[in-house]
Amino acid sequence: MSDILRFLRGCSDALFQSAADEIDRLRAENDALLKRVSEYERDFVATCSLHAHANLLTENAALLKDAERYRWLRGTTKRVCHTHVEANILHAKGLGQPEAVDAAIDAALEKP
After folding, report:
1. Has residue 86 got a pLDDT over 80?
2. Domain boundaries along the sequence of the chain
3. CA 47, CA 3: separation in Å to the nearest integer?
4. How far is Cα 103 from Cα 42, in angstroms, rounded to an integer?
5. Kindly report the CA angle at 27 between 24 and 30, in degrees rounded to 5?
6. First and final CA of the chain: distance in angstroms?
7. How far lies 64's CA from each of 23, 54, 57, 83, 110, in Å?
8. Which contacts of 49-53 are long-range, i.e. CB under 8 A and separated by 24 or more positions?
9. 69: helix, coil or strand?
10. CB-based burial, 30-47: b 16+ in 10 Å, e otherwise
11. Which of 59, 70, 94, 112 is the most exposed place for a label (fewest CB within 10 A)?
C-alpha cells in the first residue's frame, strides 16, 4: 500500500471536512481578489480616459486657436499682406520664432 493511501485511511472525516472548508475559503478569497483586480483595472482605465480626455481638450483648444489665426490670415488680402510684412519684420529682427509670429497675429486679432 502506498504511503498516501495509508495516510488517507488514517485521516478522520473531520480532517477531510476541515480541508474541504479551507479549499472553499481559499476559493472565496480568490474570487474576492479577482473582483478587486477587475475593479482596479476598471478604475485605472477610467483614470487614463480622464487624462486622455483632458489632453484632447487642451489639444483641441490649441488647434482652435491655430484655426482662428489661419482664418484671420486668409480673411482679406490687405490683412494677409500686412501680416506677411509683420512676419518678415519679426523674422528680420531675429524674432521669427513661431511663438513670436503667433503673438503678432494674436495681437492683430484683438484689434478692431
Report:
1. no
2. 1-61, 76-112
3. 55
4. 43
5. 150
6. 103
7. 61, 15, 10, 19, 16
8. none
9. helix
10. eeeeeeeeeeeeeeeeee
11. 112
